[in-house]
Amino acid sequence: MDDVARVIATVLRDPAPHIGQVYELTGPHSVDMTELAAEFSRALGRPVSYVDVPPERWEAWLPELGMPTHLEQHVATMAQLHRDNRYDRTADGVERVTGTPAQSIEAFVAARRDFYLG
Question: Which of 24, 28, 100, 115 minimizes the number of CB atoms within 10 Å of its CB?
Fold first, then answer.
């Protein structure tokens, strides 16, 4: 999220060069869920593991979160796109706009240790 905020702030400070541009914003490398858990583990200094829960099982749980129906559908759709590897890519949009490379998941989580550890 820091990367997205930096891109937005950069564009808002001087919008003219960005008119008509499309920037794909990704992290520095693509990770699967097991790699994501490993980055969380390193950042938090404790084991974090990925458990592959069948989509039907966790989608049935979504209504319990109290989200509007359209948001439940959006979350379920995004999860399906991830399962289909539609987001398995990287791009340099963050660095092109801000001049600073995208932050790793590990760095993002480490900066918010208190949030994740309570």
Answer: 115
Q: Closest by alpha carbon to 91, among 9, 38, 22, 43? A: 22
Query: Which two three-digit tokens encode residue 101?
Result: 């490379």
Nearest to 47 by CA among 28, 34, 32: 34
Q: 3-state DSSP helix/strand/coil percent for the chain, to nearest 5?
A: 60, 0, 40
**Which CATH topology does 2-117 take?**
Rossmann fold (3.40.50)
Q: What distance in Å separates the CA atoms of residue 75 and residue 69, rounded to the nearest whole number?
A: 10
pTM: 0.80
Residue in this structure with the two tokens 């600073």, named with its chain if needed? 100
Q: Which two tokens stand for residue 19?
A: 């008119």
Give the mean pLDDT per block of 10 residues along the chain (118 residues): 93 97 93 94 97 92 93 93 89 96 95 95
